[in-house]
Amino acid sequence: MSDMRLVIATHKQYRMPDDPIYLPLHVGHAGKQDIGYLGDDTGENISEYNSRFYELTGLYWAWKNLDADYIGLVHYRRHFTTQSRLSRLGKDKFSCVLKGEELRDILEKYDLILPKERKYYIESLYSHFCYHGPDSNKIALEVLRQVIQEYQPEYTVALETVMARSHGHMFNMFIMKKELLDAYCSWAFPILFELDKRLMEYSNRRFAGVIGEFMLDIWNEKAQIPYKELPVIFIEKQNWLIKGGRFLYRKIFSKHDRGGSMNGISI
Predict the structure, then answer these.
(1) Distance CA 45, CA 61 (A)
(2) Domain extent at residue 122
(3) Rounded to 10 degrees, what is the CA torsion of 136, 138, 140, 145?
(4) Which are the contacts of 15, defined by CB distance < 8 A and separation ≥ 6?
(5) How far apart, in whole angstroms, are the C-alpha atoms of residue 145 and residue 134?
(6) Mean pLDDT per 10-residue section of the chain, whose length is 267 residues
(7) Residue by residue, what is the 3-state secondary structure of 141-164?
(8) Distance, CA of 14 to CA of 142 (rounded, Å)
(9) How far apart are CA 53 and CA 206, in angstroms?
(10) 180 near 24, Cβ under 8 Å?
(11) Domain count, the chain
(12) Which of 97, 133, 150, 156 matches a 20 to 30 Å C-alpha distance to 36?
């Protein structure tokens, strides 16, 4: 099997896996101090969009500049692993990060790898995004729907289907065949650029980066590419008790009215 490159999106110096399949990339490098990694402002790029697009500037850079048969995107604090949580106990977390030989075996059977689905159980992706963030999140999703209806109307049902689910593949993490990456990015970025343009009036214009987490599921809901899910290992310690408490607090005391729908999506 041929070349595999996994871009590690980072904005600071950090410990990196030593496997040669990984490529640390300083996202948002344009106008910033060098930190010793390749910057996403080389070649064809949108590095200056990083404050709004987050790690998607790294995805754009990989799409336009990397020559590899399989390309992936991970984060300096989040990596794929093949090990269960139980088997990782007591180990150096970096020893559990997905290795090249493991990836080659998986890619013998799958052209698309995604993180294990994140489950929200008691709410949809739509309600989670709209009612646990700024009021403008709901407006951003409505604008996304409008853009998709105008530019890619055949994906409207896919959008509604994904947003009505209580689970999704988050973090903008994936590994896929280059031909699939070309197809996905050619679809996703024109939509995200138009979304960004239509929401220019909002001071917190970070919608493209956040909504980008939904885009791959929307695209693949229609494409139906078979995929393999892998666990995600969080390099830094996660306080799940605090996270769970904050989630329940927002759920109980949210000031928003939870009624309404998005083209038939029940909230």
Answers:
(1) 5
(2) 4-266
(3) -160
(4) 94, 235
(5) 18
(6) 90 98 98 97 98 97 98 98 95 97 98 97 93 86 97 98 98 98 98 96 86 97 98 82 50 48 48
(7) HHHHHHHHHHHCHHHHHHHHHHHC
(8) 37
(9) 6
(10) no
(11) 1
(12) 97
